[in-house]
Write a structure and sequence with these properties.
2 copies of one chain form a homodimer. By secondary structure, chain A is α/β, with parallel strands linked by helices. Among the domains of chain A are: 49 residues, Helicase, Ruva Protein, domain 3 (Orthogonal Bundle); 97 residues, Dna Topoisomerase Vi A Subunit, Chain: A, domain 2 (3-Layer(aba) Sandwich), CATH 3.40.1360. The first copy, chain A, is built from 8 helices and 6 strands, in the order H-H-H-E-E-E-H-E-H-E-H-E-H-H. In chain A, helix 6 links the parallel strand 5 and strand 6.
Chain lengths: 209, 209
């Protein structure tokens, strides 16, 4: 479709570069901005620029932060001997919102994915291994997606840790099973089988609820 | 959900002001931008600012344009005695893409909608009436949505034109009927009834196909 203005064409092209947004949606968003006060477009543009140029990755765990070291790594009340390994920043937020985890994190920045051309060197795995070498860590919790890429990354990290010459941390992974509130008959077979194999004492489950 | 960075919180708040985009999508878009080169965020912010501050509405038809008078109104090859009245800029683009319309446009900027608090004075109806008073227009084509608001607006414009003391233009409306390729049995009753009432000579339909 041809647009009646060069400026409109430009803004549509830029907005449509964002994932999941096509040219039709981009046009709708641009026309919406045109009906709002100029200040809204200025605030939007400013916030994008500031976010992209000023936000940092924590030097320890690679979580997003405004400072060199994030609030979680800086928090002495947390258990720095317990590291939860996650794929990206959203996973940190999801786990934090449960309020159940008191350790620290390590954000990989993705998963090993040969199909997408993402190898271990594109992630922060080397920095994780450095953390293990420099500090004595008690336990690593692998909290990656249970996909082929997630399993590959889990196994790669497991092998790297096994090769450590310093004291090796305990390696655990988050539990897979039937979701709370999910009906058994609709669960997939693999998950159901895993939830039976990894069953836990009933008394323990009562205490958690 | 709490975000680990003030800059991230700000950009999510601004992006989530856009229609149809929630906080979760805004977070996904922000993290996407963080993985792309800084230049992409700069181009995006620049294009939004330039679009919002530099784009104009044509002084005659209120279509979006980079100039004071849009390319359609400036085109002497078009029939300036024929005005198609549409709700917004997207309708102009849609009609232009058919290549079948050789007249000019008038963009209302919305529809009369008492429920949304939009009255005739919020639209460009007065300017349409001025165009009719100043130039001798042969025909007005009302091409608004066939909704309650569309019908209200159609009727308001019809009454305004009927009250004109200068030469009154012919008023027509676009045809409603069964879409090309649509099956009769799935069409709604009102549309089907209208398409029978407004039937056209068979010879005419052959010439159009």
């Amino acid at each position: 479709m041809e647009y009646p203005s060069k400026r409109l064409t430009e803004v549509i092209d830029e907005i449509a570069k964002l994932p999941g947004i096509g040219k039709r949606t981009a046009l709708r968003l641009a026309l919406y901005l045109l009906k709002q006060p100029v200040s809204q477009s200025q605030d939007l543009a400013q916030s994008i620029l500031k976010f992209r140029t000023e936000v940092k990755h924590c030097k320890i765990c690679h979580n997003i932060s405004d400072k060199d070291i994030c609030d979680i790594c800086n928090n002495t009340a947390r258990n720095h001997q317990l590291i939860c390994v996650v794929e990206d920043v959203r996973d940190v937020m999801a786990i934090e919102s449960t309020g159940e985890y008191k350790g620290v994190y390590h954000v990989l920045g993705g998963l090993i994915s040969p199909l997408d051309g993402i190898g271990p060197s594109d992630l922060t795995i080397d920095k994780l291994i450095k953390r293990l070498e420099n500090d004595s860590i008690d336990e690593i919790v692998l909290a990656l997606s249970s996909t082929v890429d997630g399993d590959t990354t889990n196994f790669y990290i497991y092998r790297k840790i096994s090769a450590l010459t310093v004291q090796q941390p305990k390696i655990s992974t988050i539990a897979r099973g039937i979701s709370i509130g999910e009906e058994l008959e609709y669960a997939d077979e693999v998950t159901l089988a895993r939830s039976i194999l990894n069953r836990i004492p009933f008394e323990k489950s009562i205490k958690q609820s």
